[in-house]
Specification:
heterodimer; A: 2 domains; B: alpha/beta; six-stranded mixed beta sheet; 28% helix
Chain lengths: 267, 212
């Protein structure tokens, strides 16, 4: 089945749809016009640029270049995950970077070698595209997970100190907060899996189907990617929490206040 | 048993404790007095390693308290706070989770013992099925005492533990701690029941002197 091409002029027509949110924004005085137009423009420009870049990346398909690009993706994902965190970026960049790298690479190399059985496991078409999907979801999971973990401990400082006073080890005292935040981080992924196919056709499957592949193949890829997303999200959230604990708590198990951005110190 | 040596503590630029020395012997029951903000609660927090003195040192059983030794010290202490946070959990699950801590692996939290302690502090057995946040301040305080008793620790840090109790229950709690010779207690309280007998020593943190 041939995918119908969309000429640039027709694509431009899709922007006309934006008149609806613009009208809603004006009517309800939502005051989101600026951010809406900025986000749409940024998305379009980024995708156009990345389109050219991926074309070159797929054609060239050099393992070193692919790995370098993966590093850029990792760095960007880590920055996005921690930029709105209450913890100073300089303190948690490295642990989150290591956590994202381990979780993404473990899953991606397993997929590329064992499941897809690629000749070249660094093939850009798989390495870059699949890593992007995993990183995007790890990012969302970590945004929720790290924020919830530290927010809950700070909110329940008395409860945490009570557990320490009982003689709990650091791990034992932190475990309830870890459980809460990991569950919260996984919630969207688990909910998405539970409704997949019935409520919505996921992005990757839509892409593969529009690309002309059979529904059977699209479904196989989708099942694989959903399992991979769940695994890499849970791995990265757990690793991030475990690694940031080393930095954010002192040796007697007390949360350091100087790791938080000053504007958030009383949150 | 517990020794504070020339302790200085400040929060930011505000000095809270200046040059305090205090020695508590094994088996003693010491009540610390002082106005609010005079550093009574900070004494408890320092023993547990929650705040660190700017100067001076604390010894517990002869060991200087530091980031490493404090983990062992916490295992020997039962701490009860006036406004204890027991989280949002069913009471029986809370007790169960505390019994599962590694430090308590040798202890048996038998049903019979839990029930006896609940009865002793006039808590209904139905409390075990309630969520901790449903409990009143007084019930929470007594539940924390029950949990502390289950832990079989020999040192108790009691920070206003009778503040939400009526006179009759205050006496019950005071008797429970003061009548035991095998435990050491550091107590902060405004309740006169704690000073009624001769078994307690009273230390004023403001003038840093024992009260006769």
């Amino acid at each position: 089945m041939e995918t119908i091409n969309i000429p640039i002029s027709s694509l431009a027509l899709s922007f006309l749809l934006l008149l609806i949110p613009i009208a809603i924004s004006l009517f309800l005085r939502l005051n989101i016009l600026r951010s809406l137009l900025y986000s749409v423009a940024r998305m379009a420009i980024q995708l156009i640029l990345i389109g050219f870049f991926l074309k070159y990346l797929f054609e060239y398909n050099n393992p070193v270049v692919n790995i370098l690009w993966l590093s850029v993706m990792l760095t960007t994902a880590v920055f996005s995950a921690i930029k709105s965190s209450t913890i100073k970026i300089s303190k948690i960049f490295l642990p989150v970077f290591i956590s994202f790298t381990i979780s993404t690479l473990t899953v991606i190399f397993y997929l590329n070698t064992v499941v897809i059985d690629l000749q070249n496991i660094f093939d850009a078409r798989y390495l870059i595209v699949l890593s992007g999907m995993l990183l995007g979801n790890s990012l969302r999971g970590n945004l929720v997970g790290i924020a919830a973990f530290y927010k809950n401990i700070r909110k329940d400082t008395k409860g945490y100190l009570y557990r320490l006073s009982l003689g709990a080890s650091e791990y034992e005292a932190l475990l309830p907060y870890m459980r809460q935040s990991i569950k919260l981080a996984l919630k969207p992924t688990l909910a998405a899996m539970a409704t997949m196919g019935v409520v919505a056709l996921p992005g990757m499957m839509t892409g593969v189907l529009l690309g002309g592949a059979s529904p059977a193949l699209a479904i196989k890829y989708q099942i694989m990617i959903m399992i991979a997303i769940t695994v890499s999200t849970i791995m990265s959230v757990v690793l991030t929490i475990l690694m940031t604990i080393r930095i954010c708590f002192d040796k007697s198990g007390i949360l350091k206040q100087n790791v938080f951005s000053s504007s958030n110190i009383h949150n | 048993m517990i020794r504070f040596e020339n302790i200085h503590l400040s929060f930011g630029r505000v000095p809270v404790i200046e040059n305090l020395s205090l020695k508590i012997k094994r088996g003693e029951k010491v009540v610390v007095l002082g106005r609010s903000g005079s550093g009574k609660t900070s004494l408890f927090s320092m023993i547990l390693g929650f705040v660190k003195p700017d100067k001076g040192r604390i010894l517990f059983d002869g060991t200087v308290l530091d980031d490493q030794s404090v983990w062992q010290v916490r295992k020997k202490i039962a701490y009860i706070d006036q406004d204890i946070s027991l989280g949002s959990i069913i009471t029986s699950e809370l007790i169960d989770s505390i019994s599962k801590l590694k430090v308590n692996s040798m202890l048996v939290f038998s049903k019979e013992r839990i029930h006896n302690l609940l009865e002793q502090f006039e808590l209904p057995l139905s409390i075990l099925d309630k969520y901790t946040q449903e409990l009143s301040g007084g019930e929470r305080q007594r539940l924390a005492i029950v949990i502390a008793a289950l832990l079989e620790r020999k040192v108790f840090l009691l920070d206003e533990v009778t503040s939400s109790l009526d006179k009759h229950l205050k006496e019950k709690v005071v008797d429970f701690f003061l009548q035991r010779d095998d435990i050491t207690c550091l107590i902060s309280s405004h309740d006169p029941q704690w000073y009624a007998g001769n078994s307690v020593k009273i230390f004023n943190v403001e003038d840093k002197k024992w009260k006769q």
